[in-house]
Automatic annotation (TrEMBL):
Belongs to the short-chain dehydrogenases/reductases (SDR) family. PANTHER family: PHOSPHATIDYLINOSITOL-GLYCAN BIOSYNTHESIS CLASS F PROTEIN-RELATED, RETINOL DEHYDROGENASE 11. InterPro entries: NAD(P)-bd_dom_sf (IPR036291), SDR_fam (IPR002347). Its EC number is 1.1.1.300. One of its GO terms (molecular function) is all-trans-retinol dehydrogenase (NADP+) activity. Pathway: Cofactor metabolism; retinol metabolism. NCBIfam families: PRK06197.1. It catalyses: all-trans-retinol + NADP(+) = all-trans-retinal + NADPH + H(+). This is NADP-retinol dehydrogenase. Signal peptide: none annotated. It comes from the Eukaryota. Coiled coil: none annotated. Keywords: Lipid metabolism, NADP, Oxidoreductase.
């Protein structure tokens, strides 16, 4: 049953010897499986993790399974812009190239809280953290082109709205909807980034991995119960990683930059996710919140 409902497999045979990849949240779930496959194909892979100790265990596991010793762990806390800047500074000092950036990490349905910089946790980690990381690494991606950026979003974006007057959830807050809002932001960021990167040979895609058995639901007892109840309909992390891998590896996707993918095919997005005005405004507001000059 699970296999039947998990259509979409990355069939690319592309090898990545000499290529460099960064995967956020690579110490568990989809991120771990994505990193493992990239390493299997010969890439030098950075596991960008908040929990370095857990990341080191995963790195050794991937090294053993793939035979690729070029699997490195670096501290990255997306809830702290100082950590993001430190990661980027260290990476840029070490590496001459970056060919694949997988913005995979995320939080879901956590109680109301704020990041170190005062951002609502979902918007801060899922959108603003990856927004900042991507912009800090963007010149390296351009220098290494052709290169790709994959942003992991969700079908939940259909319920999302960008409330610019309540971006930090201080006026009203719902844990479930906050997640949806942040996933909509991922798609809007991808579309606007693709527009700005046109002609640069850096392409970007957003993906819905499917309903996956992962640690993402750890904050919701209801979701954990539903995951167990409907376990036959839920993807494994390995299955959930397929669309991220498809967008990172498949040849000939350049003309589809900015599109959203699910089960390794272009997927329909909500009207809000196609709104270029909202996408551009979100870009400008994000830059303002992060102290980045708006161009």
């Amino acid at each position: 049953m699970r296999k039947m409902l998990s259509s979409g497999v990355c069939t690319s045979t592309v090898q990545l010897l000499g290529k460099v990849a960064v995967v956020t949240g690579a110490n568990t779930g989809i991120g771990k499986e994505t990193a493992k496959e990239l390493a299997q194909r010969g890439a030098r892979v950075y596991l960008a993790c908040r929990d370095v100790q857990k990341g080191e265990l995963v790195a050794r596991e991937i090294q053993t399974v793939t035979g690729n010793q070029e699997v490195l762990v670096k501290k990255l806390d997306l809830a702290d812009t100082k950590s993001i800047r430190a990661f980027a500074k260290g990476f840029l000092a070490e590496e001459k190239h970056l060919h694949i950036l997988i913005n995979n990490a995320g939080v879901m349905m956590c109680p109301y809280s704020k990041t170190a910089d005062g951002f609502e946790m979902h918007m801060g980690v899922n959108h603003l953290g990856h927004f900042l990381l991507t912009l800090l690494l963007l010149e390296k991606l351009k220098e290494s082109a052709p290169s790709r950026i994959v942003n992991v979003s969700s079908f939940a974006h259909h319920l999302g709205r960008i409330h610019f007057h309540n971006l930090q959830g201080e006026k009203f807050y719902s844990a479930g909807l906050a997640y949806c809002h942040s996933k909509l932001a991922n798609i809007l960021f991808t579309r606007e980034l693709a527009r700005r990167l046109k002609g640069s040979s850096v392409t970007t895609y957003s993906v819905h991995p499917g309903t996956v058995n992962s640690e993402l639901v750890r904050h919701s007892s209801v979701m954990r119960w539903m995951w167990r109840l409907f376990s036959f309909f839920i993807k494994t992390p390995q299955q959930g990683a397929q669309t991220s891998l498809y967008c990172a590896l498949t040849e000939g996707l350049e003309s589809l930059s900015g599109n959203h993918f699910s089960d390794c095919h272009v997927a329909w997005v909500s009207a809000k996710a196609r709104n270029e005005t909202i996408a551009r405004r979100l870009w400008d507001v994000s830059c303002d919140l992060l102290g980045i000059p708006v161009d």
